[in-house]
């Protein structure tokens, strides 16, 4: 499983950012051909992205390209040009505004053909699906099961808020007037359930007030608490915060390893399924919870 605590958005139309992104500590970098690229710059951006993939040094991170959504005229060329030119340097294609499972199946078929035509290993390129409108959310279970290439479901709050007519312009924050609870709870949980039921990662979307690190931290903590694996970052200053928030704390990691050790001893040596660890009773379900935290902690190098 690839680590995706921080997923850095880089506009494909900006060669300077494409260069700079290679030195940043984001777990994933996605090179964007969609909404951060103006219509007049789409073709140039494809060339920039293919060149950056071919000549850049992307070692140690997951690299994705976000193509345009399937209601546009650009999608098929985005996929064909970039994957033919640089498919061996690419981990995933991100498909935005996915509204039904057929769109993921379309991308899967196209990738299969390109892999055959170019000699890339079959199934090499994964898919990330953005859920960012009401139709996508309603169809999220079918979308999540649409292809073995799928690796993540990604929440797209900006498009989503527009799609449901949420009464606010500030992406990621609670809409004014919504004074109790979390206006995003249902959406996040819905995406998380579909992801987990299909062994996919669940990734939270962007926080557009890039100078407001406190706000970013608060929003990220919420989805991390639910179980999300990571979040988009739009600016280098958000990267370290995301990496920290979507990793377990050192104390939780140490606690998880202690549970695993104690439980292993209890079941194999003492032949007991429930034992005390300090003041806490642990059993098989505790082991499963500890395994989740320990796996994330090991991946984060704790
Ligand atoms: C991201 O694509 C969003 O719409 O929030
Ligand atoms: Mg979007």
From TrEMBL:
<feature type="binding site">
    <location>
        <position position="66"/>
    </location>
    <ligand>
        <name>substrate</name>
    </ligand>
</feature>
<dbReference type="InterPro" id="IPR005000">
    <property type="entry name" value="Aldolase/citrate-lyase_domain"/>
</dbReference>
<keyword id="KW-0479">Metal-binding</keyword>
<feature type="binding site">
    <location>
        <position position="159"/>
    </location>
    <ligand>
        <name>Mg(2+)</name>
    </ligand>
</feature>
<dbReference type="InterPro" id="IPR015813">
    <property type="entry name" value="Pyrv/PenolPyrv_kinase-like_dom"/>
</dbReference>
<keyword id="KW-0456">Lyase</keyword>
<dbReference type="InterPro" id="IPR011206">
    <property type="entry name" value="Citrate_lyase_beta/mcl1/mcl2"/>
</dbReference>
<dbReference type="GO" id="GO:0008816">
    <property type="term" value="F:citryl-CoA lyase activity"/>
</dbReference>
<dbReference type="GO" id="GO:0006107">
    <property type="term" value="P:oxaloacetate metabolic process"/>
</dbReference>
<feature type="binding site">
    <location>
        <position position="132"/>
    </location>
    <ligand>
        <name>Mg(2+)</name>
    </ligand>
</feature>
<keyword id="KW-0460">Magnesium</keyword>
<dbReference type="InterPro" id="IPR040442">
    <property type="entry name" value="Pyrv_kinase-like_dom_sf"/>
</dbReference>
<protein>
    <submittedName>
        <fullName>Citrate lyase subunit beta/citryl-CoA lyase</fullName>
        <ecNumber>4.1.3.34</ecNumber>
    </submittedName>
</protein>
<dbReference type="Pfam" id="PF03328">
    <property type="entry name" value="HpcH_HpaI"/>
</dbReference>
<feature type="binding site">
    <location>
        <position position="132"/>
    </location>
    <ligand>
        <name>substrate</name>
    </ligand>
</feature>
<dbReference type="GO" id="GO:0000287">
    <property type="term" value="F:magnesium ion binding"/>
</dbReference>
<feature type="domain" description="HpcH/HpaI aldolase/citrate lyase">
    <location>
        <begin position="5"/>
        <end position="236"/>
    </location>
</feature>
